[in-house]
Design a protein that fits this description.
DisA_sf; 17 helices; two-stranded antiparallel sheet; DisA; elongated; 358 residues; ATP binding; 8-stranded mixed β-sheet; alpha+beta; ATP-binding; diadenylate cyclase activity; Ferritin; YojJ-like (1
């Protein structure tokens, strides 16, 4: 049986594994049972979902069909064999069930339970959980892919490091964006300035993703951490997209999302390379000191009187931020003609950012 996956299959596996992690997170009945099994120095093999195919891969055992509770799962784990539970975690269907997946199914696991769990996850669409009595380890398997559960203290150690990293990166990013706005208004933004800012956005987004994965594993213990993560992220994602639209050859939002995906997948060294950033933005033969002309979407969107969608309309009319500044100095009523509320406030806000007017 081949273990190669299409991109669609890989996405499905990832989604199912995340759902399995959510079901085994602290605060859930299943996690409570797993913690009791570990505390009791017991082992267990638990199959959740795809019950028809799971049952077809084994025999014997005890037919139960009883309501699922953490205490029942703990007590049944004292017997050998697998415990079979329905997908919704409402019924325990079998206990002491003897599973016989084909030994030809590939796995790199060594322990008996872990090998059986990995093979059952390849053979069926079940979520298979293996608890090692000797090593005191809980592993979840989906499509042959394993994930080892960590304790809350272990996870919190990583959380604290990531929160410090997010706070530091966010502070650096805020300073970089303020500097970038000044450079944009002065019409002196270089490719190097854009590359440095993009790098900070990518660091922030990467740490945020990693923290989200840990928050998922923390379950009910992760609510406060999620609030802190959201506070550090703020409006960074929308600002990131607007920054790319400001400088990409194709400024559509759809294309900006494609560029973001490419930026997220390239190596760290490439993120530091201005020529690679220029290539992804759609430009050739640009050096790090090349002048870049912004549309002004990000700067305009941060002005309070610019309603949602109005920044695009202004940019379509004026073409660039610098052209907007030049034109409104000569004809400020033009903003009024575009339907901008309080055009004088918008003009004053831009001039104050620019330092041209008190």
């Amino acid at each position: 049986m081949s273990t190669s996956q299409t991109p669609e299959d890989a996405q499905d596996t990832k989604a199912r594994l995340r759902d399995a992690i959510r079901k085994t997170a602290p605060g859930t009945s299943l996690r409570f049972a797993l913690d009791m099994i570990l505390a009791g120095h017991l082992g267990a093999l638990i199959c959740i979902g795809d019950t028809d195919n799971v049952l077809a891969a084994g025999d014997d055992g005890f037919r139960l069909d009883i309501s699922f509770t953490a205490n029942r799962l703990f007590e049944l784990s004292k017997m050998d064999g697998a415990i079979v539970i329905d997908r919704g975690l409402t019924k325990i269907l079998r206990a002491n069930y003897h599973l016989n997946p084909s030994p030809s199914l590939p796995t790199s696991e060594t322990g008996m339970r872990h090998r059986t769990a990995a093979r059952m996850s390849l053979l069926t669409k079940a979520v298979v959980i293996s608890v090692s009595e000797r090593r005191q380890v809980v592993a979840i398997y989906v499509d042959g892919h394993g994930h080892q559960l960590q304790s809350v203290p272990e996870l919190m150690s990583s959380v604290n490091q990531m929160l410090v990293s997010m706070q530091s990166t966010r502070a650096q990013l805020d300073r970089a964006l303020l500097r970038l706005t000044t450079l944009e208004l002065d019409d002196y933004v270089t490719l190097s300035d854009i590359a440095d800012t993009i790098y900070l956005f990518e660091v922030l987004m990467t740490v945020s993703e990693q923290l989200s994965d840990i928050i998922l594993q923390l379950g009910s213990e992760g609510k406060t951490i999620e609030m802190q993560r959201e506070e550090f992220i703020g409006n960074a994602s929308s600002d990131y997209t607007l920054l790319i639209r400001d400088y990409a050859k194709d400024s559509s939002e759809e294309h900006a999302q494609c560029i973001r995906k490419q930026l997220h997948e390239i190596s760290n060294s490439q993120l530091h390379a201005p020529d690679k950033i220029a290539e992804l933005l759609g430009f050739e033969n640009k050096g790090e000191e090349s002048i870049m002309v912004p549309l002004g979407l990000r700067t305009l969107s941060n002005v309070s009187v610019v309603r949602k969608g109005m920044a695009d309309k202004i940019v379509d009319e004026f073409g660039s931020l610098q052209q907007l500044l030049d034109d409104i100095e000569q004809n400020p009523s033009k903003l009024d003609e575009l339907g901008v509320d309080n055009p004088s406030i918008l003009a004053d806000s831009l001039y104050r950012m620019w330092g041209k007017r008190a």
